[in-house]
Design goal:
The protein is built from 2 helices and 3 strands. It has 119 residues and is α+β, with helices and mostly antiparallel strands. The protein has a domain of 70 residues: 2-Layer Sandwich (30s Ribosomal Protein S19, Chain A). The protein has a 3-stranded mixed β-sheet with strand order 1-2-3, covered by helices on one side.
Length: 119
Amino acid sequence: MARSIWKGPFVDGYLLKKAEASRSSGRHEMIRIWSRRSTILPQFVGLTFGVYNGQKHIPVLVTEEMVGHKFGEFAPTRMFYGHSSDRRAKRTAGPAVAGAAPAAPGTAAAAPTGGTSQS
């Protein structure tokens, strides 16, 4: 369910202070934050935030397209390594099995012999 409009976007107070201080100083360093729940505001465009993902701070350069989204959307917390069954399927579907009969001539598996293709 979306947040009601009359409440406005949620942003932690310290985040606004840090962004303002960074902009006024003119230094381009990463602002380390732990507030994944805060909404990205137009004032943050062009700044780099280090969003904590539970293990380390992921650098996020804020662009125009990110305004209105949450910081947590751009720092994934889980790493997907793939399913173990996929590796088994690759091994069996890989190269042709030794001892298998070759494809019969004239079937779809046979290689084309010269000729022009009509597509």
